[in-house]
Every structure is written in C-alpha cells, then in structure tokens.
Amino acid sequence: MAKNKPGRSGFTSYPWCRLSQTLLFLNVLAVAATATATADDSNFPSSPIWSPHPSKKLTKPVVLLISSDGFRFGYQFKTETPNIDLLISRGTEAQTGLIPVFPTMTFPNHNSIATGLYPAYHGIIMNKFTDPITGELFNRNLDPKWWLGEPLWVTAVNQGLKAATYFWPGADVHKGSWTCPKGFCKAPYNVSVPLEERVDTILSYLDLPETEIPDFMALYLDQPDIQGHEYGPDDPRVTEAVAKVDKMIGRVINGLKKRKVFSDVHVVLLGDHGMVTNCDKKVIYIDDLADWIKIPADWIQAYSPVLAMNPRWGKDVKNPGEKNAEVVAKMNEALSSGKVENGEFLQVYLKEKLPERLHYSESSRIPPIIGMVGEGLIVRQNRTDAHECYGDHGYDNMFFSMRSIFIGHGPRFRRGKKVPSFENVQIYNVVADILGLRPAPNNGSSLFTRSLLLPFGETAQVE
Ligand SMILES: *[C@@H]1O[C@H](CO)[C@@H](O)[C@H](O)[C@H]1NC(C)=O
Ligand SMILES: *[C@@H]1O[C@H](CO)[C@@H](O)[C@H](O)[C@H]1NC(C)=O
Ligand SMILES: *[C@@H]1O[C@H](CO)[C@@H](O)[C@H](O)[C@H]1NC(C)=O
Ligand SMILES: [Zn+2]
C-alpha cells in the first residue's frame, strides 16, 4: 500500500459502507462460456498439459481478479510456489512480468487495472496528493469526484451483471449503478483480516445459486507489500510472505475444485507493482542545489520515489509557466554539474515535457514539475531529515524492479502460453471481453485481448 510502517493504515478509519442495495438483474445475455476443446491453434505449444475442458458447471463466464500487492516479478522464484506454478502451466503468463503504470504506486495502479486508464485520465495520480487548482487533499478519499473513469465493477453492474469486491482500493466509492452493496463489497481495508477469511468469503459466493453468483469478483491481498516495505525485497520475511500468498492461491484453487468450478472460473492473478530496496543510502538533498536555486520545502508535495513540485508564485508573477521552466532549467543545471551528491540520479521536468511513455501530463491534478528519481534513490530536503532503510516503489515503470506478475487461467485463456510483458491498462478490456461487456473508453487496445484470449464462441464453430 502506502509507505511502510506497521499500523500505517489510515485506512482502517474509513467508514463502513452502510448502504445495502438491491442487487441488479442478472445477465440474461450470459451466453455459455466457451468450452475450450478446440482444435485450434497454431498458438498452442503442443503441450501435454493442455486438455479438453473437463466439466462445465457454470453456464456463465465468471472472473475472479486477485491482486497481490507488491508482488515483484521474480518473487515466484524465491521459494516453492506450487499453486502459482499450476496456474502458470495451465494458463497464460506474462513471461517477463506485468508492467505497472507510472507512478508505480498502489492506488494509481489498482485503478488503472480496474479502469484501463492511465492515472492522468482516471484521476488518482498518486496515493496522496493535493489538487494544485483547488488545494484539496486527496488521501484515499471516497468522494466519487476524485475517481474518474469506469472501473470493472461499475461496467458490470451498469450492464446488468453482478460484482463483488474485497478490499480492492477504490471499490468502496459509489459510482454509476455501483453502491458498494453490503455483503458484496468488503471495505474499508483492514490489515487485521486474515487472508484466509478474505479468500473464503469470495469462495462462499460460489455457493450461491448460479444467478446470484457475482460475474466479476475482485480480491485484494496486501502481502507481500507490507513485508517488502518493512524489510526490503531481499529479506527472508518477504520469501515467507510469497509462500503465504501461494498458499492463498492454493486455497482458491482447492475451493474452486471442491465446488467443481476450477475449470469454469477465470482466475486472473496479478500484482500492482514491484519493490526495490533503498538501503544503498543514495540520497539527493534538495538544499544541495542552493547555489543554483533555493527550493523551499513548501513547494514540494512529495520527495521520492517521485519528486512532485508546485512552486508558489506570488500574484505579481505574470507567467508562472515561464518561472516553472526556469526552475526546471536551474535544477537540472545543478544536478548535472557533478557538484551535487547523486545529482545524476534525478532529472526534473515540466510535466508537459515528461517522456511520452509515462502518460503523465494530461491532468490538472499532476503538479507542474515532476522529478524522475533513479531506481532505489531517495530525495530529501536536507541532511537533518532522517533516512531509514526500507523497500519502496513508485519509481519509473521502466525499471524491471517495478514489474509485477500476470497469470490468467480459465476457459478463455490460452493454455501453457507465454506472452510478452504488457501494461496493466490492457486488463480492463480483457476482463470486459470475457464477461461479454461493452468496455468504457480506455487506454488499452481492443486488439490486445486476442493475444491472451481464445475468441469468444470459437469452439462452437469448430465443433
Ligand atoms: C479489523 O479486523 C479485525 C479482525 O477481524 C477485527 O477484530 C477488528 O475489529 C477490525 N477493525 C475494524 C476497524 O473493523
Ligand atoms: C530540513 O528540512 C525540513 C523540511 O523537510 C525542515 O523542517 C528543517 O527545518 C530543515 N532543516 C534545516 C537545518 O534546514
Ligand atoms: C486514454 O483514454 C482516454 C479515455 O478514452 C482518452 O481521453 C485519452 O486520450 C487516452 N490517452 C492515451 C494516451 O491513449
Ligand atoms: Zn506499497
């Protein structure tokens, strides 16, 4: 989630969602999920694991989306992960991981996964930020005005399907036909609820009559992010947390098998971002730039892993944009002078000039000046600010350490298939396609779903 520290959940103070709500009509359209015994296709490796769809208990497509916070790509090689391995061998995996959006933080990424939009378009541009125009603070607020775009649970209920969410960041915001119905929308986040209880609650929905089973379910697991922050990604306690997450996946698989729906339910396992240590003690001190430019602390909204600056110009300043450009130029001059300690690890931009690949300019909520911080580096105002050693994320999404995992398993996912890494904004379309939903406008490519999914109804034609 956010920055480390035990008991850091300002979260637990969120009011419980009080509204219970009439559940919407089930999806009459729900055509039978495609069976997968296809004679297709050139994309399949001739894999012995691939076998015809053995049973078909559910007659509608169901998606269970599971997020493991801070599950850095590569963690699956730290220890035995037999359950994750099972999903991989029988499903589709992003072979070198899932690419998060920038900034690689929890709230922006969970909302990009849910909406298919980059943060500039879904509005959650950091976990915590101040709107430069209104001066209002966003700190995981539930007021829908902050949450732009249309998350999957809203798309689902707007189009007559049912949805359920468990601690998914932002899922307790009321939008469209989604009112976070009691019993099907577990919130607010509570770190003390055991992962087993979260998994079992989701599984219990599958005991409902089929028409009542949520078509879309989203489950949030806060490990191994907690341990990664506290001890850094290489600590044995992170390895233990990875094993724990794998156990939870095993619990999901067994629960589905027990209910004879393991081959019917689409399980998508992913993470929001990776983790990197900042224990190398490479720090950039803003006050070290003073010979070039003095930057007051109250211009800075966030130091690292993303430097976010909103200079406060007086009323007399006619062209703040020009002044901001001067600040950027002066800062970069200082940083590249060779005279600022670790200066080479920070580059400052007017947000409009950030590399296009970051998609991080088209929002008035993004402060005018953004500094891209080197991998694992820390930015502080001055040397009196204590530096503790821990793990962090939020850095450039180009860094491999920020990557997470993606595995899709179920009738529509190609079996034993590896795909190249892709950005998490693609996932919205994939889930919408499986559920037969009309996607809201988003930043994924509609063609992308073809690389992960078997065409809908393909088998009908083949048979
Ligand atoms: C959080 O969960 C624990 C364990 O279930 C429970 O005892 C506690 O009351 C919960 N806290 C809140 C604020 O709901
Ligand atoms: C260091 O920066 C902090 C703000 O981050 C400020 O409160 C403190 O007074 C500064 N100390 C010195 C010695 O400038
Ligand atoms: C992302 O999607 C939104 C909504 O369709 C659109 O306005 C925006 O231009 C898109 N941005 C990019 C970079 O594709
Ligand atoms: Zn985190």
Automatic annotation (TrEMBL):
Q: Which species does the entry assign this protein to? A: Eutrema salsugineum (Saltwater cress)
Q: Which InterPro entries match?
A: Alkaline_phosphatase_core_sf, Phosphodiest/P_Trfase
Q: Which SUPFAM superfamilies match?
A: Alkaline phosphatase-like
Signal peptide positions (record) = 1-39
Any one GO CC term of the record? vacuole
Keyword terms, alphabetized: Signal
What name does UniProt use for this protein?
Answer: Uncharacterized protein
Q: Does the keyword Signal apply?
A: yes
Q: Is Signal one of the keywords UniProt gives this record?
A: yes
Q: Which Gene3D superfamilies match?
A: 3.30.1360.180, Alkaline Phosphatase, subunit A
Organism ancestry: Eukaryota, Viridiplantae, Streptophyta, Embryophyta, Tracheophyta
